[in-house]
Amino acid sequence: xxxxxTRRKFIQISGAAAAGLAATGLGFDLxxxxxxxxxxxxxxxxxxxxxxxYCAVGCGAIVHxxxxxxxxxxxxxxxxxxVINRGSLCSKGAGLSGLIENENRLLEPxxxxxxxxxxxxxxxxWALTEIAKRVKATRDASFERKNAKAQxxxxxxxxxxxxxxxxxxxxxxxxxxxxxxxxxxxxEHQARI
Amino acid sequence: MPGKSFFIDTxxxxxxxxxxxxxxxxxxLPAEKTVNRGTYQNPADLSFVTYKLVRFNETVVDGKxxxxxxxxxxxxxxxxxxxxTAEDPGAIFRxxxxxxxxxxxxxxxxxxxxxxxxxxxxIPRTARDGTLAKCDMCNDRVRNGxxxxxxxxxxxxxxxxxxxxxxxxxAKNRLATVKKTCPKAxxxxxxxxxxxxxxxxxxxxxxxxAVASNSAFDISRKVALNKLLRPLTRLTAGL
Amino acid sequence: xxxxxxxxxxxxxxxxMGSNAAENHPISFKYVTEAQRNGAKVINVDPRFTRTSxxxxxxxxxxxxxxxxxxxxxxxxxxDNKLYNKExxxxxxxxxxxxxxxxKFKDGLFSGYDAKNRKYDKSKWAFDMDANGxxxxxxxxxxxxxxxxxxxxxxxxxxxxLVSSITGTPEADLLEVYKxxxxxxxxxxxxxxxxxxxWTQHTVGVQNIRTMAxxxxxxxNMGVAGGGVNALRxxxxxxGSTDHCLLWxxxxxxxxxxxxxxxxxxxxxxxxxxxxxxxxxxxxWQNYPKYSVxxxxxxxxEKATKANDFGYDWLPKVDDGEVYSWLDLFDEMxxxxxxxxxAWGQNPACSGANSNKTRKAMAxxxxxxxxxxxxxxxxxxxxxxGMNPSTIKTEVFMLPACVSVEKEGSITNSGRWMQWRYxxxxxLGNCLSDGNIIMELGNKIxxxxxxxxxxxEPILNLKWDYISDGLYDPHKVAKEINGYFLKDVTVKDKSFxxxxxxxxxxYLQADGSTSSANWLYCNSYTEKGxxxxxxxxxxxxxxxxxxxxxxxxxxxxxxxxxxRASVDPKGQPWDKKDWVIRxxxxxxDGKYVSKKWIGDVPDGGWYPLENPDGTKRKDAKHPFIMxxxxxxxxFGPGRADGPFxxxxxxxxxxxxxxxxxxQRMNPxxxxxxxxxxxxxxxxxEFPIVxxxxxxxxxxxxxxxxxxxxxxxxxxxxxFVEMSEELAKEKGIKNGERVKVASARGSLECTxxxxxxxxxxxxxxxxxxxxxxxxHFGWRWPESGAEESANLLTPSxxxxxTRIPESKAFMVNVKGxxxxxx
Lengths: 193, 239, 821
Fold this sequence. Notes:
The structure holds three protein chains of three kinds. Chain A contains six helices and nine strands. Chain A is an alpha+beta fold. In chain A, strands 2-3-4 form a three-stranded antiparallel β-sheet. Chain A has a three-stranded mixed β-sheet with strand order 7-8-9. A two-stranded antiparallel ribbon of chain A has the order 5-6. Chain B is built from eight helices and eleven strands. In chain B, the strands form four sheets. A four-stranded mixed β-sheet of chain B has the order 8-1-10-9. In chain B, strands 2-3 form a two-stranded antiparallel sheet. Chain B has a single domain, classed as 2-Layer Sandwich (Alpha-Beta Plaits), CATH 3.30.70.20. The longest helix of chain B has 18 residues, at 164-181. Chain C has a six-stranded mixed β-sheet. A five-stranded parallel β-sheet of chain C has the order 3-2-1-8-9. In chain C, strands 12-13-14 form a three-stranded parallel β-sheet, with no helix packed on it. In chain C, a hairpin with a 2-residue loop joins strand 19 and strand 20 (494-496). The longest helix of chain C is centred in the middle third of the chain and has 17 residues, at 434-450. Classes of the chains: A alpha+beta, B alpha+beta, C alpha/beta. Chains in contact: A-B, A-C, B-C. Chains A and C meet through strand 2, strand 3, helix 3, helix 4 and strand 5 of A and helix 10, helix 13, strand 12, strand 13 and strand 14 of C.
């Protein structure tokens, strides 16, 4: 390794020399670079606001979705008009686009048969139909109209459900309504742990 | 001095690493495969795909435990040794509007080792093909009136950005305040760089390249000559 | 949170204890920093020095599981030095209430203990009532049976020397914290607490928080700006999902799940509607039947009629005295009594305590439905470590849900702000929103029951019309949650048309003329529009950061709850600068003659307790309107484990006995007894205190961060943090892989040897503590080598909530040849 400058010594250059350098110019045109620098990747994207899905501070973010091609997210950053975070985001929020545009995501319904060693890809229609059948079979076999004291209870304790603080409010409501209509009492989620 | 500057107040940094990820996100930089080496600092160092890194150091000062955080990045020197060493504005140049020191794809054609060695803050890194990379001040954002991604994402006000004169005032005012409780507080190389750090302890406790050693006299003959006689060859060849 | 994130900036002293806000709620530090820059003191108490500690004005440590001892010492300090806010305590808390003669406390036990069932008879702790059925009171606080005197007596044992020997905190540090925090008892000063799972995940979790709530009442910090009791909730919508009660014991809006003994709707409403005979008590829950009937109308729509008790019988009842919590659920699953299981946006294989028990329990299921963004340790449990797929019969359906950004709807943050978010891109691949999956599944189940089945009525009658253009419509649900007028009605001199949205819960009715799927959210989506979508950056006139027209907050957009305690009995703010509300009614001859509050939405718009001339008003209400008697509860007779907090050791402790009393662990704490529930307390095999926590770079069980390369890069492996002293003792080097084990399981971790953990001196002996983040699991990263810290944690939990004791248990650590152990 040949070192022409002593390793990591800060070079102080006189103002005169610097001025001379800048003045040379020599017809060198920075414009292509400059034009590139001025083009924002978000320029032609659709903008929507969201709230960060990680902790419960409730920070606002702006989502830039491409209007072209596959219509995917090209940038997410803090929403400066959000009164709580005022544009800031932590490492998780700042990386939110990496959660969405993520090659590890589950993209198809999968099914694992009894004693099987692997997953099998299935359709939504098949999966939901089969789940409905399982729910009915287990519920009907276990349903208690009355408890040991002969009090009306109308429940099943053979099906349990956990989740989810990751759902929206409206989803939470419909979810618990369905579970309770089925007679589940084992309904729990993150708030308990 | 016109152009832009950063003020990084480490006394307010919580090391959330928002800046580190916001940088990767904006620049579409891939993640590195890392391991835990017995520290929260990861990746271990800056790289061709990591322009911003929060450095962590535990130390005891006057019997009190300190966990010091240093969001490291290119300082965008007012007179950048990298630019000077490269001698090739097609590879390394400054944006006259912002003062951002920028590396281009042509940096692979210059003597990158020489550039790396010239940096007093140990910032530039090379890709496999020899291209140099580092913080670009989010020059695309700044030219469009946005804050650099790292500054925008910072929750506590540790990262600040603006016109250089305003940033200098901000840094000096903040230093005066912090000094009341932390007498050792100081600004690092404020007259030489566009990224001005405020630290409350000896800078060496944060990072061995936190400050540059100030040696205007320790310049090689070649660089000294270059200052006066700028060669034209590679300048034009680079384009 | 009683207050909200921005309000932290109004505080004079911020105690961060039981949470690590800088790391786990990073943006909260915007406001912690702002307060600090304005002169507030930030105190951090944590077993280990964290990124939060690095920014605190004062940091000290305590052994995990000893917070009541630490805070009990603070109560004693406040009382000994008379630093409480006398006027606030006497007027707004139950400090003056006279407690009945049956209440006693001796040797760590309160009166009424039933050792066989590990339960108290809470009737022994009742207040003495006067002839009108109103609690007897002595607001001079001198009566020897008043709450204040009993409190002083109870905490007289919590001297700093004893506290220090339990917590391991140096006495000087205790005094420094006590002195700094107690200074907020001065009128006009506010102190706040930022806590999280560091306080809840204990057998004494509720009492940890109660101890602090009592301190806040003593110092007059409830209801004021920069004060309150602030739980930093961990997930983006865990507040909303709790409000909608995805929990066994409550129905949407914190109504009770009916017990089997509540044999009719009338019996149910009678049982759960509190009665107060004090005309000055608002006793807000007296409106209970309006909320329960409106909820049933949302469940079953037109099918819910007065004749059929609005469908009350169609919904499941729980047995009296039985508990169906998370720990009980997995205990039953482990015992094989549960056959079908949904894991919906949750990863119990890693997130619950005692993961080995949870994972083994799953192998006993017939079927499981796992809905998530990524394949996870729950859905793939059958091929996890130690599992042999060929012996596991469980069928698993794994359904791909889309990310929040790919759908529309609202979430509620920790400050109770309901915020609307919009769809950016469409769901990736074949993902669907949870809403669409739920609607579709409901439709399929309805279809199969149309052909018959056991008790199909609730399924077929469930109102299920939240679809527009074939897809789930969040606006339709949001409106249902708010509630509708179901006929033309006139309420409180106002007329409303059938089919219009109810403007606030004050208009809900118990006769079936209104619906509201959650009374707490009534006012969120009205004829004026979707309140959660509001974006105005205009502050309220008090300029304390309420931003009343940004999003919406429950209840009725009140940003600081219990805010009527922020004013004196005449309705004027204790803090003249950062005031929350003030009474601005007209005054005539020293009396208020018109009603007007300004600032935040007041906790009820009644007149203040006193007129400007000091005369008492009969049309006023006490400020704590959700409490039956209207007072802040320094004495809490509703808790399962005692009306006052008391220090008990965790289930697993480094000590053979409790230095405070003969009761080693919480006498009302649950005990589980399967073969997966091994316990090792005060055991030489596991001599080190273990705790779990989170880091900034990951989130919860890690499922939304471990498969995310940018975040995995930052924290790629599970680690165990330990002191330099312990590492030296064990011959462990920084960065080496070590094994951590408890009586229930073990995992491999990278050692972080740090000055940030220090050994404790407990009861004269050195006690080490180590900590592990619980973000990891074998599925991600793909190395399969990183596991969940919950393999170590025990199945026991809080006596009231049964939140698992994940924060204090016993372990051992070994380096070197990992397989030899």
